[in-house]
Amino acid sequence: MSEAVSKRYADALFQLSNEKGTMDQWADELLVLKTIIDDNDTLMPFLKHPRISLEQKEQFINDVFRSFSEDIVTTLHLLATRHRLDIVPLVIDHFIRLVNDAKGIEEGTVYSVRALSQGEKERLEQTFAKRFGKQAIKLTSVVDPSVIGGIKLRIGNTIYDGSIQGKLNRIQRNIGAVN
């Protein structure tokens, strides 16, 4: 249920940002908000606490997020009024996905046994942007010793596994299929 509701809020924010020409600004602000939520374990429990009045929550939102766009703050007030502040991270994720789709950007994750250099990451982004027919691909690098060597790339629902562990798994499956 919260997935569908969060998509509706994200769609409304996206349409409004598109009309006002503030898409990039709002995307940046919402990413900052998501970082604040992720980095602060007490923020959401405080905002959802039943003993904190709506007026206190709204005052807190005004004080903490006063540098944010008025429409973002208004959305937070609306979500507080409707007791839906718990879906804020989902709304942000959906909004960012809509912005990326509008700009032809895809996000993905690259897994490697060591941290990739900026140059290696950029080459992967350029190569896979062409392969996916996107303007750009933004990759998040994750160090994963289980890949043993090579890389594993996840973009959307597609996984490209060029890792040694992946090759060993394929060999094992092929040997099992022969027996």
From TrEMBL:
SUPFAM superfamilies: N-terminal domain of the delta subunit of the F1F0-ATP synthase. The keyword Cytoplasm does not apply. Pfam families: OSCP. PROSITE patterns: ATPASE_DELTA (PS00389). It comes from the Bacteria. The keyword Ion transport applies. Keywords: ATP synthesis, Cell membrane, CF(1), Hydrogen ion transport, Ion transport, Membrane, Transport. Its main location: membrane. It is a peripheral membrane protein. F(1)F(0) ATP synthase produces ATP from ADP in the presence of a proton or sodium gradient. F-type ATPases consist of two structural domains, F(1) containing the extramembraneous catalytic core and F(0) containing the membrane proton channel, linked together by a central stalk and a peripheral stalk. During catalysis, ATP synthesis in the catalytic domain of F(1) is coupled via a rotary mechanism of the central stalk subunits to proton translocation. Belongs to the ATPase delta chain family. This is ATP synthase subunit delta. It comes from Lentibacillus halophilus. The lineage of its organism: Bacteria, Bacillati, Bacillota, Bacilli, Bacillales.
